[in-house]
Amino acid sequence: MELAYNTLKRNMITEPLARWVFGRACRNVERYIFVASTGRSGTTSTQRILSVIDDLASVHEPFPQLCNTHWPLLQQLEAGDERPIRNAFSRKKLLEIYRAARGHRWYVESNYQFIHYFADYACEQFPRRLGVLHLSRDPIKVSLSHYNHETVPGHTPVGIRRMPHYRADRNLIQVAPLLEPGGRFEHPFFAIVWFWYETEARMRDFVRRHPDVPVSHLTTDQLNDLDAVYKAITHLGIEVDRDKLAGAVGTRENVSDSPAQVPQEVSNDELRAFRNICRAALDRIGPPFDISPQVDSPDA
Question: Which residues in the chain land under pLDDT 70?
Fold first, then answer.
């Protein structure tokens, strides 16, 4: 099977055949679930928790990432041309999803790029088998972690290659003039705060446009709460042994030791003002999630 996969995926002629062959091999997969998050919010821990579930393929930011080697495609997407990245999803990403999912009942992928770059394509491909686990962490903690790892949208090399640019026309929260050099909030830290709100905005927009897709919501802190994790997972149609899940819940991984302090150049008043601007824009996208009592609502 592996040899057939490597042979079929090599060119534009055999790739459609490969998609059909491996799509057929995955016809018994019950649900394709993607974790929507900002990154730096517990996705590694989520992947580890889910990996204990029988018949479930749990992967974290698998190859191919729609960044780095696909960076020119993202530049075209940010400029308004989605065709190249749509083709990359169909020709490359989808094959790897099938490759990991075959032989399992459920496929779960932790990938912050899902909600930014290929959520709609996944809806088209898995119209009745898609699910989303929305994982949210406090925006300042997320921003501090990205800042200390030098993943800053529009500023650092990794941030430029891996994250949406705050100047992109397709952004739902348009605050670029405020973030530009000479703008009111020109410090790079504000660009990461914007990224948090932009991610939440895209999630709200996704839920509004795809009301039939089942969605569960968790905060990072709730990854330590067996009841919340169990209910969020089963809400997405995954069958899990609660006792087995208990052994995986509560152990954090990939925890940063970075100090939880904003840069000295960023005042509390400035940060509060910028968050108010972003929050107002976020609320114009849609109301906060109406989350059932099974899972608490993340603080936006």
Answer: 1-13, 67-71, 251-260, 290-300
Side-chain-facing half-sphere of 131: CA atoms under 13 Å = 21
d(CA 285, CA 189): 23
Cβ neighbours for 46, distance < 8 A, ≥ 6 positions apart: 35, 110, 133, 135, 218, 223
Compute φ and ψ for 219, nearest 5 degrees: -95, 160
- CA distances, 100 to each of 26, 30, 93, 116, 296 (Å): 10, 14, 11, 22, 31
Q: 39 near 137, Cβ under 8 Å?
A: no
* One-letter identity of residue 95: L
List the structure tokens of 230: 């169990």
pLDDT reported for residue 71: 57
Q: How far is CA 101 from the centre of its chain?
A: 18
- d(C-alpha 235, C-alpha 128), whole Å: 15
Sequence-distant (6+) residues with CB within 8 A of 181 are none
| CB of 154 closer than 8 Å to CB of 166 | yes
pLDDT in tens, 35-73: 999 999 999 999 999 999 999 999 998 888 775 444 577
What is residue 136's three-state secondary structure? strand
Say which residues have a Cβ less than 8 Å from residue 273's Cβ, sequence separation at least 6: none
Q: CB atoms < 10 A from the CB of 80, how many?
A: 9
pLDDT at 294: 43
Residue 136 near residue 126, CB atoms below 8 Å: no
Query: In this predicted structure, what is the pLDDT of residue 63?
Result: 82
Q: 221 near 199, Cβ under 8 Å? A: no
Contact 166, 176 (CB under 8 A): yes
Per-residue tokens: 202: 């895209």
One-letter amino acid of 106: W
Which residue's structure tokens are 């974290």?
60
pLDDT, residue 23, reads 85
